């Protein structure tokens, strides 16, 4: 029986990032047919938005070098969105050739991570994104934007809130419909989350993207929901990380999030049992157990 709390939304959209953020960080290259089945199982469990892959440089992220092949194999279901990550115009060309209708660009809030993840400066990352967003919108393609290292960065320490807001506002100003605030290395805490969301003035176009490195992701999510956010990124099984930020571990596990949300009486449209069996199946394919606490508890039966 759910026990609701005041001040929380009735419904939350879970933006599933397992096939992209999760699989980009696996040391083994996962066969493309396993990826396609993973995405199909996620849709079957009720996901309505599944970030499928990345059109980044294949030398930078070899794990997702099969993006074209994967998209041709997708069993696209009506009502399910399959956005892909795109850093630059080359990536956009590749995505458009495959008929993609939603993309996500990904910026850094810090100078060092812009260099390590994008080979750009904080300023020149916008030179890369501007034509991508403009051309995508001309093609009727919706654009989400991420900001990484919103709370802290392994090289520069805590990230000033004003620096995150400045980067985020510029991305929204380009015409991105949603801004996902990334805690890439999982160092944020709930009060910091509240302060950052409030600094944006309105939560309407914000989403949150927590990695669970320090075990703060669920607490941070609750703070974000209380501050008015209704879209939360998560990865089924809690797989994930960022290959260009060594201290990043997996994303908040979708199952852990769903357990909390359903306990609060918040609708997600997701079937927890199907998610757990998907994670158990994927753990077999990856050769390692899921780090999700809920998967570990429920898979034991
Ligand atoms: P660069 O080396 O500066 O690229 O990399 P360039 O523009 O100088 O081009 C060099 C060559 O690469 C050219 O080929 C391009 O055509 C080719 P050449 O003319 O020499 O033969 N090229 C490409 N090929 C295929 N697809 C492309 C592409 N772009 C260029 N898209 C670049 C710049 C941005 C491409 C590179 O730095 C890159 O791919 N970075 C991606 C890194 C990445 O994927 N990181 C993980 C995702 S971010 C994340 O996980 C964080 C997030 O989850 C949120 C959070 O947790 O905070 C989103
Ligand atoms: Mg991430």
In short, what is this structure?
The chain is 41% helix and 14% strand. The chain has twelve helices and ten strands.
Set out the fold topology.
Layout: E1 13-16, H1 18-22, H2 32-44, E2 53-54, H3 67-73, E3 84-85, H4 89-97, E4 102-108, H5 111-118, H6 124-138, E5 142-148, E6 152-153, E7 157-158, H7 161-174, E8 178-183, H8 190-199, E9 206-210, H9 217-226, E10 231-234, H10 254-263, H11 272-286, H12 293-299
Helix pairs in contact: 2-3, 2-11, 8-9, 11-12
Residues 21, 182, 184, 209, 211, 242, 251 line the site of magnesium ion.
Protein described:
- α2 crosses α3 (67-73).
- The chain has a single domain (13-300), classed as TIM Barrel, CATH 3.20.20.70.
- The model has no long low-confidence stretch (mean pLDDT 96).
- It is α/β, with parallel strands linked by helices.
- It is built from twelve helices and ten strands.
- The longest helix has 15 residues, at 124-138.
- The relative contact order is 0.16.
- 41% of the residues lie in helices and 14% in strands.
- An eight-stranded parallel sheet has the order 1-10-9-8-5-4-3-2. Strands 6-7 form a two-stranded antiparallel sheet.
- Bound molecules: 3-hydroxy-3-methylglutaryl-coenzyme A (HMG) and magnesium ion.
- Residues 21, 182, 184, 209, 211, 242, 251 line the site of magnesium ion.
């Amino acid at each position: 029986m759910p026990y609701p709390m005041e001040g929380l939304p009735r419904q939350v959209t879970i933006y599933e990032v397992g096939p992209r953020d999760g699989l980009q960080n696996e040391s083994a290259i996962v066969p493309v047919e396993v990826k396609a089945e993973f995405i199909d199982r996620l849709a079957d469990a009720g996901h309505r938005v599944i970030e499928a892959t990345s059109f980044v440089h294949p030398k930078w992220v070899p794990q997702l070098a099969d993006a074209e092949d994967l998209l041709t194999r997708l069993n696209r279901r009506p009502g399910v969105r399959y956005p892909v990550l795109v850093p630059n115009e080359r990536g956009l060309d590749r995505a458009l050739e495959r008929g993609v209708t939603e993309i996500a660009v990904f910026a850094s809030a810090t100078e060092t991570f812009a260099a390590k993840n994008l080979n750009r400066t904080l300023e020149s990352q916008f030179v890369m994104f501007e034509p991508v967003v403009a051309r995508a919108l001309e093609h009727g393609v919706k654009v989400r934007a991420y900001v990484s290292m919103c709370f802290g960065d392994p090289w520069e320490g805590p990230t000033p809130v004003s620096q995150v807001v400045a980067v985020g506002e510029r991305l929204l100003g380009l015409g991105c419909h949603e801004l996902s605030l990334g805690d890439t290395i999982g160092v944020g805490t709930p009060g910091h989350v509240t302060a950052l969301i409030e600094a944006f003035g309105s939560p309407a176009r914000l989403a949150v993207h927590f990695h669970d490195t320090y075990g703060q992701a669920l607490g941070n999510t609750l703070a974000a929901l209380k501050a008015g956010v209704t879209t939360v990124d998560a990865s089924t099984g809690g797989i994930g990380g960022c290959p260009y930020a060594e201290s990043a571990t997996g994303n908040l596990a979708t199952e852990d999030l769903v357990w909390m949300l359903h306990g609060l009486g918040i609708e997600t449209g997701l079937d927890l049992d199907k998610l757990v069996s998907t994670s158990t199946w994927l753990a077999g394919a990856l050769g390692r157990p899921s780090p999700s606490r809920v998967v570990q508890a429920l898979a034991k039966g």
